[in-house]
Amino acid sequence: MFALRTNGLTKTFRVKRKQPGLAGSFRSLLKPAWEEKEAVRGIDLSVAHGETVAFLGPNGAGKSTTIKMLTGILHPTSGDAEVLGIVPWKDRNRLAFRIGAVFGQKSQLWYHLPPMDTFDLISRVYEMRRSDYLARRDDLIDRFELGPYLHTPVRKLSLGERMRCEIAASMLHRPQLLFLDEPTIGLDPVVKARIRDLIRERNRSEGTTVFLTSHDAGDVESLCSRAVVIHHGGVLLDEPVEKVKREVLSRKTVKLTLSESNGAARLPPIAGTRIVRAEGRRYQLSVDLKRTAIDEVLGQLIGRFGLEDVTVEDPDLEEIIKHIYGMKKETGEAG
Amino acid sequence: MNERGFRWTAAALKLHAIARVTVRQQLAYKTDFLLRSVFLLFILYVFVQLWTAAYDGDSSRTIAGFTLKQIVWYLAFTEALTMAGPPLGPRIEEEVKSGDIAVKLTKPLSYVGYHYSSYMAEALFRFAVHLAVGSTIAWSTVGAPAFGLGWMGLLTLSLGAVTVAFLLSAVVALLAFWVEETRGMEFVMQKLQFTIGGMLLPIDLMPEWLQRVCAWLPFQAALYFPAGTAVHFQTAVWLKQLGTQAGWIAGLSAAVIWVYRRGVKKLHVNGG
């Protein structure tokens, strides 16, 4: 049984082509030139109930356009899609009762009012029974630890607090499928981790299907079991996250600053590690996890040097996608 | 309750909830209310001076059936209504441009219904405040009103007037689905309401040919009807105006739904 399925889903936008210069602007007024821009090109995809799928791609790859078609906001140019057995753009209202959506850069909370007011409004919009709403709301407040700022106007909340409220609000009506469009954008690592925990917990306890887009490899690793990468509007890769991790997400970035007590000492070569950047006492290392473990690298560094600062990060997702794109090209050429 | 009845009740409860939260949000804008009230005070003061000059300060004189007192109260009502209207055009345009419309379209809620409910709540709330401020000024300059059933005429026709004003703004605002800029069209629409809608002077004072033109346009239903009936109540005219308003509401609602349904299919949601 599928939570969503697409077949050749395509979206083409007609975009006005601006001609350069003032004369060009006048010419455009009299005789506008248009061009077709293919945002999504024949996407075939199926997601099972309860699955957690990362839908990835560089900026402009067509991720958000696809989500907007799957939520019924945009009408496709061609192709079909079914979400929870409903054609989204034909019956958007009926589908809306069964899905939830969080757009990381857009808010559903009323800016000058406390989150509680938005929760109340959402319960009416989703036609929830009062007793059911109150029980559900209290449960989410408890799990998301929203109690301390439930009565604080949204404008006075931090981004992390607001995002927790946004996600709780989108889960109030128990959606079977949750679309998350960049849910952790702009958040600090601690808040990101908390938000990921909460989403994962909802997926496990309620079987909510999660369809996530993110530029953060950490979101993908910790939340999703499957990664779909799109590029230029089409599917480039569709694999379990474990496999992607093994083959592609096999590097970590270590940024460190040596303490002054080390004098002019330089970092020696460490097996499986490449120095990407070195500026004075500051280094950026790329660690190949297939060859060495992070704790081994850190152990060697701490054993031999005084460290002022050290961070371990995932590689930039854009880089990963470029890497996948390169791999696919090589495979294609080899084939 | 049958399925149809249930759907209507659910829709009414949603609109009520939106209206409620809109009014709550309005209470956060105290400075805005204060500034608007000061502006209303200033505008009405200028109008009182102008019309007092036009009447030579003679309170018993009538022009086109209006005494000075009736004119000043008429202007207090039209100003209170005009200044009550929220900026629907810029809001919808901004939602379309920024892509924030996506948040509303993923909810089981009518987009137009949402804006109508929010607009009505905000407009009626502001109207009540402006009416109180405007009445204070009119009372202190030309004396207490003695409009009798006119008050009932004002309140009943104001509901329809705000609805007509919403629908006129909505038709223009929804063009944001096609064009990048609707402010110009909104500006023209607003100025038409100010002039041939009867905000600056009652339509009765206009040339006869213009009155005949106005009779075929919706603008008078948004301002002239409630204010004119308030100061000149006649049951037959009031009923006719209610009927005319209902006709315009039906016609404009059909236009708004038509524009929305076509527009939402053309939507190009921006912002990621």
Q: What does the model show?
A:
- The complex is a heterodimer of chains A (335) and B (272).
- Chain A has helices at residues 21-30, 63-70, 92-96, 115-125, 130-143, 159-171, 189-206, 217-223, 241-247, 294-304, 317-334; strands at 2-17, 33-48, 52-56, 78-83, 99-103, 177-181, 209-213, 226-231, 234-240, 251-258, 273-279, 282-288, 307-313.
- Chain A is of the alpha/beta class.
- Among the domains of chain A are: 2-98 and 175-247, Rossmann fold, CATH 3.40.50; 251-313, no CATH class.
- Chain A has a six-stranded mixed sheet with strand order 5-6-7-3-8-9, with helices on both faces.
- In chain A, strand 11 and strand 12 form a beta hairpin.
- The longest helix of chain A has 18 residues, at 189-206.
- Chain A is globular, with a radius of gyration of 23 Å.
- The model of chain B has no long low-confidence stretch (mean pLDDT 90).
- Chain B is mainly α.
- In chain B, strands 1-2 form a two-stranded antiparallel sheet.
- Chain B has helices at 3-26, 30-54, 68-82, 88-98, 101-105, 111-142, 150-173, 183-195, 208-215, 219-222, 224-231, 235-266; strands spanning 62-63, 66-67.
- Chain B has one domain.
- Chain B is built from twelve helices and two strands.
- Chain A binds chain B through residues 13, 64, 68, 71-75, 92-94, 96-97, 99, 101, 103, 105-108, 110-113, 117-118, 120-121, 124-127, 153, 179, 181-182, and chain B through 10, 13-14, 16-18, 21, 24-25, 28-29, 98-103, 105-109, 265, 267-269, 271-272.
